[in-house]
Structure formats: structure tokens, C-alpha cells
Specification:
The complex is a heterotrimer of chains A (about 250), B (about 110) and C (about 80).
Chain A: H1 3-26, H2 33-46, H3 51-59, H4 61-81, E1 89-90, H5 107-129, H6 138-145, H7 147-155, H8 158-164, H9 167-192, H10 213-241, E2 243-244
Antiparallel strand pairs in A: 1-2
Helix pairs in contact in A: 3-4, 3-10, 4-9, 4-10, 5-6, 5-7, 6-10, 7-8, 9-10
Chain B: H1 4-21, H2 26-48, H3 70-101
Helix pairs in contact in B: 1-2, 2-3
Chain C: H1 3-21, H2 25-45, H3 49-79
Helix pairs in contact in C: 1-2, 2-3
The chains are: A mainly alpha (about 250), B mainly alpha (about 110), C mainly alpha (about 80).
């Protein structure tokens, strides 16, 4: 299609979209009774003080299971796309290749990143574990945890990253996290024929171990998200630094 | 001024779509797709917001104080994390397309040969 | 809505346009990173701390990182051709 024709078609579509959605938005009266109900009910019924985590993992836990598996599937897709093809081969990583003068990272970067790795891991574990009480949860803490190997890569080279976070370890962590969520739901189903039922004692609101199975699901989802992001990082780095095309 | 989030959401959608339509580099196309996705975040934020309400975390405030909609925030939360993995999938596709055909312009990619 | 929320909404709209109008992919990674930080601040100002936590790390770090790695691979493939 010619560019001019494509642009006029886009203009017509954008104008129609803006008119229809603008007209719909002018008539929106958000009702919000479900939101008020959830806000009123989470603390007395589930002993969870963070309403967003309660909605994510307890009240609408089944939807989050689906979203987590979307993430698992797209990491699997990236691993499939970036696999070693038949005519490619693996060489030594490019930042150690002969004849290539890559300067070592400066001392300031090395000191800063190595000093930051400990606090970042601690903060990530804190955010994962405290998902029931304060803003946090599996997804947020997992993402924070996944930046720790990136700091190690910045301080050193590709070889140190692979030695500290080998692929089999990170992949099994991700698989355990993803499967653990389904297993927790299945245990609920075995006990009382309701998938993802809350089958642990509820505890007191504001504690770390409140909310029953939500505490357990936080840990598994944190493991899965962190593992997924580190696997993505390892795949992209391997494709960039190690893979060699046929000459 | 409560119509401002909806207007910004429509504007971001149209701008992102314009970027996709007139893009000449695959990586630029993928980033414009993520701008398009952020328009849905602004729309959901506008729907769930209440003027003068607090965050839906009841650690310091007693349960029962008016708070913002938590269901919509739960939707946005998983969406943000999943978006970046799907963007990674699209970037891997772009890298492989460039390797097989040598071109990065979506107008020139042409027919696939198996 | 107070003036801070109105200001951040207008900045997000302006920066969305800036991201689309930047053509060079290397500049695009930095502009997209700043756009991610702006979105995180917007989530925080609209009383959504959980979403802001994930958006700041992802939008400012993970997305530009993957864009840069893809660009490095593309440049290496072009150089060896």
C-alpha cells in the first residue's frame, strides 16, 4: 500500500476512534461498588492489609495464574527463537576475545555495583515477603531481585555472570515457581473441591505470615518472575556475546 | 478536570498507532507498541481514581476509609510485568528477522520463504 | 485532581509524542527509559504504589536493556556481513 494511502486510512481510523471513545468516556459513571466491597472486606475476612495483593492472589487468584503463565510462555518463546541454529556455533564470549581491546570497567563502577548487590537482594526479598502487609508482592519483588545479576554483569564480565547464575539453576527456579502456584491451587482442590482455596491459617492482619496461602503464593510468584527475567537476560547476552554466525 | 486521563489515553493511543503506521525500523515499531500499551494504563487509572482518596493499603489507616479502586490496580500490575516479556519476544523476532533477511525496514521485509 | 497530577499527565502525553518522533534506535532506548520513569511517577501520584514499584524497575531498566542488547546483536550481524 502506498504511504499516502496508508496515512489517510490511519487518519480516518484515528478520528473515528477518538470520536467513539471520547463519546463513551463522556458518559462514564464509574460505579465502584465492587471496589468498595473489596476494600471493606479484605481486612476482616482475609486478614490482608494490602488490598491489591488480596485481589491479585486471593480474590481473583485464578486470573493471576493465567497471567503468570503468559509470562512463562513468552520466556519459553524467546528461548526457542534465540536457540543455536544448525549453522551457528558458540565461541568464547566477545568481551574476552583475542585482539579485541575491551576496556575493563572502571574502579568506581566496580565498587558501586558490588556494594549494591547485597542491599538489592535484601530489598527484593523484603518486598516479596511483605506483600500481604505493605505495598509489595510477588511481581514487584521478583523484578527487583532480577536486577542483582545485572549488577554483577556490570561489575565484571560475562563469564562471572554465567558462573554465579548458571542457566540450569535459574531455569529450575523459574519452573518451580510457576508450577508451585498450580500445585498450591491443586492442594486446595484436593481438600475441599475448590481450586485455589485458602487452606492455611489466616493469622493476624499486618503480620508477615497473614493471609493464608497468599504468603506462599507470593514466594512462588517472586521466584518465577525473578527467574524469568534472569533467563531473558542470559538468553539475550548469550545471543549477543557468544553466538557466532557462519562466516 | 476529570476528563483529562481519558483525553491523554486517547492521545497516547493515536500517537502510538501513528508511530507504528509510519515506522521504518523494527525496533522503533516495537517501542511504539509499548507506548500504545501505556495508554491502557492511563485509561484504567482514570477509571479507578477517586478524588481525595488514599492508596488501598490499610496498614496505617483503619479499613473503611475511602480508598482508590484496588481491582483496577491489580489488572495494571500484572499487565506491566507481562508487557516487558512480550516486548522481549518481539525483539527476539526482530533480531532473527534481521539475521535471515538482512533488512530492518518493515516496508521491505516482503514475503517469507520457508 | 490537584495541579501535580494534571502536570504529570500532560508530561506523559508530551513524552509519548517524543518517543514516537525519535527515529534513531539508540536515542530511542534512553528516551523510552525516561518515559518509563515518568509513568512510574504518574502511578505513584495517582495513589497506586504497587504498580509504581514494578513499573519503575521494568520501564527504566529491563526494557531499555533488552533494546540495547538487540541493537548490539543487529550491529554485530551487519558488521560481519
Amino acid at each position: 500500500m502506498k504511504p499516502a494511502a496508508r496515512l489517510t486510512l490511519f487518519g480516518v481510523a484515528a478520528a473515528t476512534f477518538a470520536a467513539v471513545v471520547g463519546g463513551a468516556a463522556a458518559e462514564i459513571r464509574p460505579n465502584g461498588w465492587y471496589a468498595d466491597f473489596v476494600n471493606r472486606v479484605t481486612v476482616p475476612e482475609r486478614q490482608i492489609t494490602d488490598a491489591v495483593t488480596a485481589v491479585n492472589f486471593d480474590i481473583r487468584g485464578f486470573d493471576t495464574l493465567g497471567e503468570e503463565f503468559i509470562m512463562f510462555a513468552s520466556v519459553l518463546g524467546v528461548a526457542l527463537l534465540l536457540r543455536r541454529q544448525r549453522d551457528e556455533w558458540n565461541g568464547p564470549p566477545l568481551d574476552r576475545a583475542r585482539g579485541r581491546g575491551v576496556p575493563a570497567p572502571s574502579d568506581a563502577i566496580r565498587i558501586l555495583t558490588v556494594a549494591l548487590v547485597g542491599p538489592v537482594v535484601l530489598f527484593g526479598i523484603y518486598v516479596v515477603v511483605h506483600g500481604q502487609a505493605t505495598p509489595g508482592g510477588g511481581f514487584q519483588g521478583g523484578v527487583v531481585l532480577a536486577t542483582a545479576p545485572l549488577l554483577i554483569y556490570l561489575a565484571g564480565e560475562y563469564g562471572s555472570l554465567v558462573r554465579l547464575a548458571p542457566r540450569w539453576l535459574v531455569e529450575s527456579a523459574e519452573a518451580i515457581g510457576a508450577g508451585g502456584y498450580a500445585v498450591i491451587g491443586a492442594i486446595g482442590m484436593l481438600r475441599s473441591e475448590r481450586f485455589l482455596e485458602n487452606w492455611l491459617p489466616l493469622g493476624k492482619a499486618g503480620d508477615v505470615f497473614s493471609g493464608g496461602t497468599v504468603a506462599l503464593i507470593d514466594l512462588t510468584v517472586g521466584l518465577e518472575v525473578a527467574g524469568g527475567f534472569i533467563v531473558l537476560l542470559l538468553l539475550f547476552l548469550e545471543e549477543t556475546l557468544v553466538r557466532r554466525d557462519p562466516a | 478536570m476529570s476528563w483529562l486521563p481519558y483525553a491523554v489515553a486517547i492521545w497516547l493511543f493515536v500517537v502510538g498507532l501513528y508511530g507504528i503506521v509510519t515506522s521504518r525500523h523494527l525496533v522503533h515499531l516495537i517501542i511504539c507498541l509499548s507506548v500504545l500499551q501505556s495508554s491502557t494504563y492511563v485509561l484504567l487509572l482514570g477509571i479507578g481514581f477517586r478524588v481525595g482518596a488514599a492508596a488501598p493499603v490499610f496498614v496505617d489507616i483503619p479499613p473503611g476509609t475511602p480508598a482508590v479502586d484496588p481491582v483496577v490496580q491489580a489488572l495494571m500490575l500484572t499487565d506491566v510485568v507481562v508487557e516487558v516479556t512480550v516486548t522481549a519476544l518481539l525483539l527476539a523476532l526482530a533480531v532473527q528477522a534481521h539475521e535471515r533477511t538482512g533488512k530492518l525496514d518493515p516496508n521491505q521485509l516482503g514475503i517469507m520463504r520457508g | 485532581m490537584n495541579w501535580l497530577q494534571i502536570l504529570i499527565l500532560l508530561m506523559v502525553a508530551g513524552f509519548g509524542l517524543a518517543v514516537v518522533l525519535t527515529r534513531d534506535p539508540l536515542h530511542l532506548a534512553v528516551v523510552a527509559s525516561f518515559y518509563g520513569i515518568l509513568l512510574g511517577i504518574m502511578f505513584f501520584l495517582f495513589q497506586a504504589p504497587d504498580v509504581a514499584l514494578s513499573q519503575i524497575t521494568i520501564g527504566a531498566l529491563a526494557l531499555p536493556l533488552m533494546v540495547l542488547l538487540a541493537l548490539a546483536k543487529i550491529r554485530r550481524t551487519e558488521r560481519s556481513r
